[in-house]
What does this fold into?
Amino acid sequence: MNDSNFKFCERVGDGTWIMNIPKDQLSTSIWSGKSPLPEIGDTVEINFNGFGKGKVVGYFTARGEIPQGGTEHRWYVGVEVHLEKEPEWYRKQNGNKHRHPQVFGSEINIMK
It folds into this structure.
């Protein structure tokens, strides 16, 4: 699906990502990275817990705190990364589920 009204992805029951989160959600979600939000397929390096490099395979949003004086939660956008090589501790923790880490912008470096 290549529709200019959509930017984000959402996982369906079989684990496939589909483009169906409205693009206007970007204006209400906070990206914590210093660089722009990476595209699907971009290579990034997760800068903690020895995760290393991988490709962006999807996006997610997570509800944050309510700002002081505010009435609604802030929303943050992050990326889901398919790792080049999963750390051993991560494989043991997740078994054969092959879960991709979900990280926020401040937790990655975008590789050029």
About this structure: The chain has a mean pLDDT of 78. Strands lie at 6-11, 17-22, 29-30, 43-46, 52-63, 75-83, 102-104, 108-110. Residues 88-94 form the longest helix (7 residues). The longest strand covers residues 52-63.
